[in-house]
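Service request form, structural biology core

Requester: graduate student, group of Dr. S.
Request type: structure prediction, single chain
Budget code: on file
Notes: please return the result as structure tokens.

Sequence provided:
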Amino acid sequence: MERQCGEQEIKSAYRKLAMQYHPDRNPNNPEAEDKFKELTEAYAVLIDADKRSAYDRFGHAGVAGAGGMGGFDPNAFQDLSDIFGEFFGIGDLFGAGGRRRTRAQRGPDLREDLTLTFEEAAFGTETKVSVRRHEACEDCSGSGAAAGKSPVTCRSCQGRGQVRYQQGFFSMARTCPTCQGAGSVITDPCPKCKGETRVLRQRTVEAKVPAGVEDGTRIRFSGYGEAGAFGGPAGDLYVVLHVKEHPFFSREGNDLHCVIPISFTQAALGAEIKVPTLEGEQVLKIPEGTQSGTTFRIKSKGVPVLQGRGKGDLFVEVRSQTPTKLTKRQRELLQELDGLTRIENKPQRSTLVEKMKDIFG
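Core staff response, request fulfilled:
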């Protein structure tokens, strides 16, 4: 380490080495414990500007008995105790004090699946969702104790929520295994919830589905999940939507697409056809000479924009169908027409756009 390195560099180096030589990671290894002790004493000096200056001037004699190189100052490690505590499961790494933690915990989130028709997803709907969830016990108001009773002070930790033990030259603290850190235990549990503070119930949730949702959309209902343990807040309910396919519409964002067959004569002479939409039929004008595969756009006949204004569009692709069975009279008319409109079957160069259509359909 450089002589002029900063505080963050010192902390980073200490964390790395302390994790390597910590007694919890090296049980029954006196050499690792000695190295960890040396690291700790060195860190206590380096992180304190006054002690570091004294050590630079007078060596070990300058810091002897001052919380480093001959003494131990736990205050120098308070900003690191959370890191070691999280890694090793230690509530108070250096025995410098600790806080009782409550057992109250936020309840888990729940998920329910809901299937909608294509139209319900497009226009929105109001429905009901059945949910099986844990709720706070009404008999004990979520305390877990029987009527007229209350939790008593934990004898293992004397209400502190932590128990201490000695490891090497450290006095460490862990969450009390008897009361799980609450500092109290239930000796007379509620008969209904058996001291669990919650009971399982079936509920029906009114679900309002907005217009424009898609397959896979999640709707969050805050506070409709599992009740929290020991008085903690409830989790959330997530309803995942599954949309059925439409018989002929396909959806891309807020736009709709469909294919409508037309006859050869409608394509050649032009026509007006009725096109189905989600809101009823719409008249579409087919111009003379329309080629098979032409797509027409009908504005604002798509799906409403979710939580917004306006709608998508409807794209209609017309495909000219060739009859497979002809009457004698139809054949005669088509032969006559062919004689009048015969074209030369000369190969043409395929354009890039046409090639892409052939590849991707």
